[in-house]
Sequence to fold (290 residues):
Amino acid sequence: MTFLECNDLIKLYVDEQSKIQVPALRGVELSANEGDLIAIIGPSGSGKSTLINLIAGIDRPSSGEIILGGEIITKLNEKQLTQHRRERVGLLYQLPERNLIWNLTALRNVMLPMKLNGRWPREEQKKRALHLLKDVGLGERGHHKPHQLSGGEAQRTGIAVALANDPDIVLADEPTGELDSVTTFKIIEYFKLLNKELGKTFLVVTHDNRFANMTVKAMRILDGRIVGLHRAIDPRISLDIREEVIFVDDHGNMRIPDDIRKEAGIKNHVQIEMRNGFATIIPVRGDLEK
Ligand SMILES: Nc1ncnc2c1ncn2[C@@H]1O[C@H](COP(=O)(O)OP(=O)(O)OP(=O)(O)O)[C@@H](O)[C@H]1O
Ligand SMILES: [Mg+2]
Fold:
């Protein structure tokens, strides 16, 4: 069943100086099921943070609709929106400084959102926090303060903080931007593990293409639109086989993602081969490209 739905989501910012409207999202269509782990991959300025902020209820769209678990977020009043942010959404950002309070231990950091929420009694808070730290492989690190943790450990603590109030969805904005490859891989593995064990819905936005092959559902965002859906067909068979769904506008224009262009050696021309109703795109090499 569809759990998260974005319908024709548009967000315009007004540039302070020139007063010109900047479209950050130009009609995002998105749907996800409960328990999905989704990566939305896009370059800088493509609208990733804007999308996260709208789903989180930090900001409101210019038009369009967001539905989470049957509730139309875009129709909530300010008070309801605050409640939505506090109770239904867990957030994880790129910088540990944004996720954690520096002079609190990891355990206290995970307990803090529960304290503010008031849903669990104190003893329960501690138990939950210890459990969550264990879930992210930091069962022994509860008494450490953020500066005593590695970048990856701090980010894993951040995941536990995001999960503290048992949100409906965890929204992560470039969660591995500060981390090296090995640590990034480990963080993705934790996302997968928690997604599977807790059945939580995770939405990660990132510029990191490696998420594409490591998550079950990956989409691309470009210039404020979801342009492609990428599915690893069966990672056990081959990581090389994949499907890509690309947005085609009314004039037939489409944009082939940079990494695919590079990998397939596509320059300025492609040949479209029609066979039995299927169109295959083939890179043109040779004369045309001289
Ligand atoms: N508050 C704002 N006022 C004006 N324009 C904004 C504002 N926030 C974002 N934008 C513009 O909206 C577009 C999308 O921004 P957004 O921050 O969502 O991109 P992003 O994909 O998160 O980029 P990055 O990878 O660099 O974080 C950009 O062109 C940006 O300049
Ligand atoms: Mg951003």
Residues 13, 15, 22, 24, 42, 44-50, 207 surround adenosine-5'-triphosphate (ligand 1) (CB under 6 Å).
